[in-house]
Amino acid sequence: MFSAAVISRSSKLHQLGSLLRRFQSTLVVAEHDNESLYPITLNAVSAAKQIGEDVSCLVAGTQCAKVAEEVSKIAGVKKVLVADHDAFKGYMPEALTPLLLSTQQQFNFTHILAGATAFGKNLMPRLAAKLDVSPVSDIIGVKSPDTFVRTIYAGNAIQTVKSKDKIVVLTVRGTSFEPAETSGGSAGQETVSADVSNELSSYVGSEIHKSDRPELAGAATVVSGGRGMKNGENFQLLYNLADTMQAAVGASRAAVDAGFVPNDMQVGQTGKIVAPQLYIAVGISGAIQHLAGMKDSKVIVAINKDPEAPIFQVADYGLVADLFKAVPEMTEKLKA
Amino acid sequence: MTKGHQGHLNGVKMALRILVGCKRVIDYAVKVRVKPDKMGVVTEGVKHSMNPFDEIAVEEAVRMKEKKLASEIIAVSCGPQQCQETLRTALAMGLDRGIHVEISGKDYETLQPFHVSKILAKIAEEEKVDIIFLGKQAIDDDCNQTGQMTAALLDWPQATFASKIEKNNGDLMVTREIDGGLETINVKLPCVITSDLRLNEPRYATLPNIMKAKKKPIAKKSPADLGVDVSPRQEVLSVEDPPVREAGSIVQDVDELVSKLKAAGVV
């Protein structure tokens, strides 16, 4: 009796949920470099689909037709809005925000989302303030069209928040949502435009660290080094191991601050959040701020000579050993 | 020669006025505990300090004054009475005066970047500042929103996640930490800058400076004085502990590690 009642109640809730979803229209702001779409957008599309069935994507850039084509094929995207303008060079938020506001005026989306990357974090709060709404950052779950789950205190607490705003502006944690399929969609394209001259800021240039290894945030395996690596040259040991496993290489803040590796390799509360199948922490003690960036990894391995290191408390497999012996040995054994 | 509050960085006389936001948060080294009622985390009796990113923002502002680029630096903090300690820390690091926007009780619990940015924008206008320095995020709510929202409300350009700031004629050239590397942008003044970890190494306040800071003025204001409505825009339904990972095991050697990883199907 009781369980039947519960089931019927939950199925009613479910019906209500899908009814609500039908009336939501979501806009995903695509992240790209005018040549190709960044994978985070696919995760954001999945989050958008959990909110509402009517998913549109905005592609704004300079000569971004190729990306718009790519976006129109994403499964679940109904419409692609394209804005091509020189003012979008460098994707400055001062230029993109007026475009988004004018697009919003035209289409009245209930939700506007982007990935919680440097791009999304930079842009979305500016948009929210202009819409006079309170944004929700880095969501890890969608409970209903107005209720979202996110982490606070470096991932040490999980907060469920209900937005009271008519338009909800969100950024989405990529590792918490499966990427949408890159084929099967056949969205129509529509050009949008706005007065987007930007006198306030301009893009000067960038210095992107090139690497043949997989991109950190999306890699299935991540090998990370910390202060225990002692210097930048020793990171070669990790690159060798990573190459054997087709892994990306990350680092703790200590390793970045010591100048061993560039800052974009930092995993943690203020760096990248990763959730690979396998995370190997080498010479990393496991400070709260580092754990915030990797503790949702499926399998965690710690190699550290200090048996008291906090990293062992989250590691599935811990090896108390000198990394300078253990890492080369592991590389050899995995090659064999 | 520059006149008025809008200073030119390459001018003879520098008169940039800077506002720095300083948030009081639970100290970064504290392991937070979720309250039994699951509505927040325990803050009473827990060590608090200035948000680490804000310390970096304070340091950068002080360095600009030391380089004679800035004339006056004002620290602002929104929150309960104890925020005055945070402001004193900022003053001891070299800021000139403080503004405490007092918000306590329920209003403080539901205070968000949405409200703080409105308060900061209002103060920036009243004080005629040229630069607002903020941390890129607070380590408690991890929002990473306030700087961007403040810039939007003022219609000023924003330079977020800054790791280097240089003068560029009358503008600022800012290097930003982005995914995959670094990016350089040019922003016109007035502007909002949010600091990343690698912008600088904040100084420690010396005892004489701590003593001096006690004499520096802190003005008290309320959100109502500034015409800002602090009614909540989001409702926190619950705050819970994250799922606990199953205890792992210590392996004896590399052989055992490799075989366990193979068995788990991850290598």
UniProtKB/TrEMBL annotation, chain A:
Record Pfam families: ETF, ETF_alpha
Residue ranges of every copy of the Electron transfer flavoprotein alpha/beta-subunit N-terminal domain listed in the record: 26-207
Keyword Nucleotide-binding attached: no
Keyword vocabulary terms for this entry: Electron transport, FAD, Flavoprotein, Mitochondrion, Transport
GO molecular function: electron transfer activity; flavin adenine dinucleotide binding
Residues given in the record as FAD binding sites: 227, 252-253, 266-270, 283-290, 304
Cofactor(s) the protein requires to work: FAD
SUPFAM superfamilies attached to this UniProt entry: Adenine nucleotide alpha hydrolases-like, DHS-like NAD/FAD-binding domain
The record's free-text note on cofactor binding: Binds 1 FAD per dimer.
UniProt keyword Repressor present: no
CC per GO annotation: electron transfer flavoprotein complex; mitochondrial matrix
InterPro entries: DHS-like_NAD/FAD-binding_dom, ETF_a/b_N, ETF_a/FixB, ETF_alpha_N, ETF_asu_C, ETF_asu_C_CS, Rossmann-like_a/b/a_fold
Localization of this protein: Mitochondrion matrix
Any single biological process term in GO: fatty acid beta-oxidation using acyl-CoA dehydrogenase
Primary localisation category: mitochondrion
Subunit-level organization: Heterodimer of an alpha and a beta subunit.
Function: The electron transfer flavoprotein serves as a specific electron acceptor for several dehydrogenases, including five acyl-CoA dehydrogenases, glutaryl-CoA and sarcosine dehydrogenase. It transfers the electrons to the main mitochondrial respiratory chain via ETF-ubiquinone oxidoreductase (ETF dehydrogenase).
Family, as annotated: Belongs to the ETF alpha-subunit/FixB family.
Protein name, UniProt field: Electron transfer flavoprotein subunit alpha
Organism in which the protein naturally occurs: Lingula anatina
Lineage: Eukaryota, Metazoa, Spiralia, Lophotrochozoa, Brachiopoda
Automatic annotation (TrEMBL), chain B:
Protein location: Mitochondrion matrix
Major localisation: mitochondrion
Electron transfer flavoprotein alpha/beta-subunit N-terminal domain segment(s): 38-230
A GO MF label: electron transfer activity
SMART domains the UniProt entry points to: ETF
GO biological process assignments: amino acid catabolic process; fatty acid beta-oxidation using acyl-CoA dehydrogenase
Membrane-traversing stretches: none
The keyword Transcription regulation appears for this protein: no
One term under GO cellular component: mitochondrial matrix
Keyword terms, alphabetized: Electron transport, Mitochondrion, Transport
Domain of life: Eukaryota
Subunit field text: Heterodimer of an alpha and a beta subunit.
Biological role: Heterodimeric electron transfer flavoprotein that accepts electrons from several mitochondrial dehydrogenases, including acyl-CoA dehydrogenases, glutaryl-CoA and sarcosine dehydrogenase. It transfers the electrons to the main mitochondrial respiratory chain via ETF-ubiquinone oxidoreductase. Required for normal mitochondrial fatty acid oxidation and normal amino acid metabolism. ETFB binds an AMP molecule that probably has a purely structural role. The electron transfer flavoprotein serves as a specific electron acceptor for several dehydrogenases, including five acyl-CoA dehydrogenases, glutaryl-CoA and sarcosine dehydrogenase. It transfers the electrons to the main mitochondrial respiratory chain via ETF-ubiquinone oxidoreductase (ETF dehydrogenase).
Similarity comment: Belongs to the ETF beta-subunit/FixA family.
Name this protein carries in UniProt: Electron transfer flavoprotein subunit beta
Organism listed in the record: Lingula anatina
